[in-house]
Amino acid sequence: MEKEKRIIYYATNRKEEIARLQAEYSLPSGYNINGEVECMLSKDDIKNLKEEEKKGLIQIRKK
């Protein structure tokens, strides 16, 4: 399955939510000082992460 480069911005400060997202979507642990992490995501992951984006937990960015 083809993967796309995306930047995930954590819009929440709740560490337990960030840990859940990292575990559930196999995101890299840690993030930069701006609250962003660079990762390669499948189209299915992007689709599912859009639901988390609607909850206000993250922003999916393409740089």
From TrEMBL:
Q: Which domain of life is it from?
A: Bacteria
**Protein name according to UniProt:** Uncharacterized protein
